């Protein structure tokens, strides 16, 4: 019978704290190791038997996974919040956290998290770059609007960054400092526009080569860019056993409190992928305007629910359609969507 060494890792950006124990719970090694591939591998090589390495989910787990993979027979990523719920401790430090993970591994009590494959990681990097560029551009535009208000000017056009808006800006009697600020922000927005256009075209090319994206683009409100964001956030659809599981992952399901036989539903939980939740709300806004079936469904619900609640419900319903399309390899059917409750 093969022996297994359980290694708990408290991961930080520059270093990690590792604790190794055997099947009986005996501590074998414990140390702080710099986050360099060779240093991590050398530490693991000194452990007997097969090595099961456990680490909590964090923003820099992919680099750690690549570093330890040659010396770890199994790498497990766990949910930080669920881990703390299972093993609450009054004393919390790197040593205790790594020991806790090692013992949970030995007891087979790990609340495992999904580890995105390389393809999904690469897609996420590119889609989240595009999202960040869009948000940074919005901030830059808002900064210039603030300067115009401070200078006492109200814009006569909807878009001051368009042709008419720029003609208006050029003719303003701004203060010397105000003129400098406006010109700088205009240059920043132009640079952001170019970067956004480049990244959008790259994502469109990716969408053309991915059949899953073509299925998603049949959903009202979803274009090539949105389709790639969804694929990057969802990853492998097989990991969601049901459409409700995907909606829960996006944080689009209502919270439920039950006590003494009474059941009360609250607002959405705001857990899971905030990016996927944000995108599906954008999709819902477009769908209710351009899809007859989605628009009719939204209007019926809005008659008895607040508008925002109805929009969230539509986003959830569209996401369940996304689940069905990806699971079954099909295109969106307006008549089927209209017939659903």
Summary, kept brief:
This protein is α/β, with parallel strands linked by helices and 341 residues long. It has 14 helices and seven strands. The strands form two sheets. The chain has a five-stranded mixed beta sheet. It has a two-stranded antiparallel sheet with strand order 6-7.
Strands, helices and their partners?
Blueprint lengths: L3 E8 L3 E7 L5 E8 L2 H9 L4 E7 L4 H8 L5 E5 L1 H7 L7 H13 L11 H33 L12 H8 L5 H33 L2 H6 L7 H11 L8 H7 L4 E6 L2 E7 L5 H17 L1 H11 L4 H22 L5 H6 L2
Parallel strand pairs: 1-4, 4-5
Antiparallel strand pairs: 1-2, 2-3, 6-7
Helix pairs in contact: 1-2, 5-7, 5-9, 7-9, 9-11, 10-13, 11-12, 11-13, 12-13
Question: What keyword list fits this structure?
Answer:
341 residues; alpha/beta; Nucleotidyltransferase, domain 5; 5-stranded mixed β-sheet; two-stranded antiparallel sheet; 56% helix; globular
Commentary on this structure:
It is a single chain. With 341 residues, this protein is of the alpha/beta class. The protein has helices spanning 37-45, 61-68, 80-86, 94-106, 118-150, 163-170, 176-208, 211-216, 224-234, 243-249, 274-290, 292-302, 307-328, 334-339, and strands spanning 4-11, 15-21, 27-34, 50-56, 74-78, 254-259, 262-268. The strands form two sheets. Strands 3-2-1-4-5 form a five-stranded mixed sheet. A two-stranded antiparallel sheet has the order 6-7. Strand 6 (254-259) and strand 7 form a beta hairpin. Helix 5 runs antiparallel to helix 7 (176-208) and helix 11 crosses helix 12 (292-302).
């Amino acid at each position: 019978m093969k022996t297994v060494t359980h290694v708990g890792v408290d991961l930080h950006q520059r270093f990690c704290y590792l604790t190794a124990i055997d099947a009986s719970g005996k501590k074998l090694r414990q140390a702080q190791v710099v986050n360099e591939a060779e240093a991590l591998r050398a530490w693991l090589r000194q452990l007997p038997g097969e090595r099961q390495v456990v680490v909590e989910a964090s923003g820099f787990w992919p680099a750690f996974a690549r570093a330890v993979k040659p010396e770890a027979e199994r790498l497990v990523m766990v949910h930080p919040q669920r881990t703390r719920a299972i093993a609450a401790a009054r004393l919390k430090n790197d040593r205790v956290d790594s020991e806790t993970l090692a013992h949970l591994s030995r007891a087979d009590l790990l609340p495992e998290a999904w580890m995105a494959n390389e393809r999904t990681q690469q897609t996420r990097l590119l889609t989240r770059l595009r999202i960040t560029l869009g948000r940074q551009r919005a901030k830059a535009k808002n900064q210039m609007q603030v300067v115009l208000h401070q200078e006492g000017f109200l814009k006569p056009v909807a878009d001051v960054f368009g042709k008419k808006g720029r003609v208006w800006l050029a003719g303003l009697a701004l203060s010397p400092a105000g003129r400098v600020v406006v010109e700088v922000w205009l240059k920043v927005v132009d640079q952001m526009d170019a970067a956004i256009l480049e990244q959008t075209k790259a994502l469109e090319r990716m969408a053309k080569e991915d059949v899953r994206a073509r299925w998603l683009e049949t959903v009202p409100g979803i274009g090539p860019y949105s389709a790639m964001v969804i694929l990057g956030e969802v990853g492998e659809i097989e990991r969601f056993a049901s459409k409700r599981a995907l909606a829960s992952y996006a944080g689009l399901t209502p919270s439920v409190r039950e006590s003494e036989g009474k059941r009360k539903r609250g607002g959405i939980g705001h857990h899971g992928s905030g990016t996927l939740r944000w995108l599906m709300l954008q999709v819902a806004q477009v769908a209710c305007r351009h899809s007859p079936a989605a628009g009719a469904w939204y209007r019926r619900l809005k008659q008895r629910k607040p508008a925002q609640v109805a929009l969230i419900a539509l986003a959830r319903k569209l996401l369940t359609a996304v689940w069905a399309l990806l699971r079954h390899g099909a295109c969106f059917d307006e008549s089927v969507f209209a017939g659903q409750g």
